[in-house]
Design goal:
6 helices, single chain, 119 residues, mainly alpha
C-alpha cells in the first residue's frame, strides 16, 4: 500500500469501513460526537484522505467511499511496526506479544489453530 495514513485520518477511514459509503456530513457529525472534533477538522481530514487516494468523493451530497480496504491498511501498519520496532523479525514481535501476560488455555488453543491454518 502506498497510502500512508495518520491516526486522525484512520478515524475517518474507520467510519467508512464500518458504515460503508456515507456523506461527509455524517462522518463529521459522528466524529464530533465520538471525539469532540470540530466539523471543519473532519472535513479537512476527509479532503486529505481524498488527496492521498484513500477516499473517493462523489456528488450530490459529498458522498465518501473508502478506496483502500481496512485489511490492506492493517497489513501495511503491521509490516511497518515489525520493521521499525522489531528489526523486521516476526518472531521478535510474537515473543513480545506473548511474553506480556499469561495466556488462557482458550487463547493458547486459538493461537495453535491460527498457526495450524498457516501450515
Amino acid at each position: 500500500m502506498d497510502v500512508k495514513l495518520f491516526d486522525s485520518e484512520l478515524k475517518v477511514m474507520s467510519v467508512l469501513w464500518r458504515d460503508g459509503d456515507v456523506p461527509a456530513r455524517y462522518i463529521a457529525k459522528l466524529l464530533t460526537g465520538e471525539l469532540g472534533w470540530n466539523v471543519n477538522t473532519t472535513y479537512t481530514l476527509i479532503k486529505r484522505c481524498i488527496k492521498k487516494g484513500a477516499i473517493a468523493r462523489s456528488d450530490p451530497g459529498f458522498m465518501c467511499r473508502a478506496l483502500v480496504p481496512k485489511e490492506e491498511v492493517q497489513e501495511a501498519a503491521t509490516n511497518e511496526l515489525i520493521d521499525k520496532v522489531y528489526d523486521g523479525s516476526v518472531n521478535k514481535l510474537f515473543a513480545a506479544l506473548l511474553g506480556r501476560k499469561k495466556l488462557s488455555a482458550a487463547q493458547i488453543e486459538k493461537l495453535k489453530q491460527i498457526v495450524g491454518d498457516l501450515e
